[in-house]
Amino acid sequence: MVESEGSNQAEKRDVAPSTALEYLDPSYWDERFSREEHYEWFKDYSHFRHLMQQNVKPGSSVLELGCGNSQLCENLYDDGVTDVTCIDLSAVAVERMQKRVQSKGYKEIKVLEADMLDLPFGDECFDVVIEKGTMDVLFVDSGDPWNPRPATVARVMLMLQGVHRVLKPNGIFISITFGQPHFRRPLFDSPEFTWSVEWNTFGDGFHYFFYILKKGQRSIDGEKPGNKLPVPSINLLHEELESEDYLFRNLIDEMDC
Ligand SMILES: C[S@@+](CC[C@H](N)C(=O)[O-])C[C@H]1O[C@@H](n2cnc3c(N)ncnc32)[C@H](O)[C@@H]1O
């Protein structure tokens, strides 16, 4: 299984929620992380390493939002990006991640319990902020994706304002998601942000989006240099139909009805 090397399908079904709303419940994540060692949402690092290396240089200070039990921070470290701070709302995820990185000798990686909607960091202190599948959690009760509920928009904007605030003047926000540009750009492109918005895709069946938002790079005429790739056709592999990513998306779609 590509999305979660190290876990099998039965284990994943065991931790998957019965409704998408559970993804908004901190106790769901605590309970899940107490039983699950490792799960990689969307794809593991090998699938987007080339994109990460184009944008995150060794020596960069990185903040990862909602690390869960992903190995992203260790993968970055192995590629020379050692100044990594991970946060998660789940105390269980944080405690287990702290133990894991310590035991593996990744001593510079910091893991903190914190809410991405209320970042406990000063202004302009990170070169890069990364989220993988964490912003998507905010959308599970969004209603119509073309016209998300005001409460959803307010939460997403709170998150984005915090990310924009903690980024250095030329910092980069990387968002790895299945959220397509026509749903994400209205939020990313809000006039209060000075970042430019570009994206790439990766993945074989489902395509995932790798957004690169560069603070201070918004073009003067308001035209964004987005990578205007057509939205890829969906060509599902059998294994992906069984994955929790698919469940996550489908449950969100059901919420839209
Ligand atoms: C879909 S999982 C993604 C985990 C990991 N990024 C990955 O790629 O495998 C969402 C994660 O976000 C965390 N989370 C949810 N809401 C959060 C918030 N407001 N602040 C910080 N973390 C949050 C959850 O505890 C969970 O670990």
From TrEMBL:
Pfam families listed in its UniProt record: Methyltransf_31
InterPro entries: Lys/N-term_MeTrsfase_sf, Methyltranfer_dom, SAM-dependent_MTases_sf
Record-annotated Methyltransferase domain positions: 57-179
Alphabetized UniProt keyword annotations: Methyltransferase, Phosphoprotein, S-adenosyl-L-methionine, Transferase
GO biological process, one term: methylation
CDD domains in the cross-refs: AdoMet_MTases
Domain of life assignment: Eukaryota
Reaction catalysis annotation: N(6),N(6)-dimethyl-L-lysyl-[protein] + S-adenosyl-L-methionine = N(6),N(6),N(6)-trimethyl-L-lysyl-[protein] + S-adenosyl-L-homocysteine + H(+)
Species the sequence originates in: Eucalyptus grandis
Coiled coil stretches, renumbered: none
Record GO terms (molecular function): methyltransferase activity
Family membership: Belongs to the methyltransferase superfamily.
UniProt function note: Protein-lysine methyltransferase that efficiently catalyzes three successive methylations on 'Lys-36' in eukaryotic translation elongation factor 1 alpha (EEF1A1 or EEF1A2).
Ranges that cross the membrane: none
PANTHER family assigned: EEF1A LYSINE METHYLTRANSFERASE 4, SAM-DEPENDENT METHYLTRANSFERASE SUPERFAMILY PROTEIN
Name the record gives this protein: EEF1A lysine methyltransferase 4
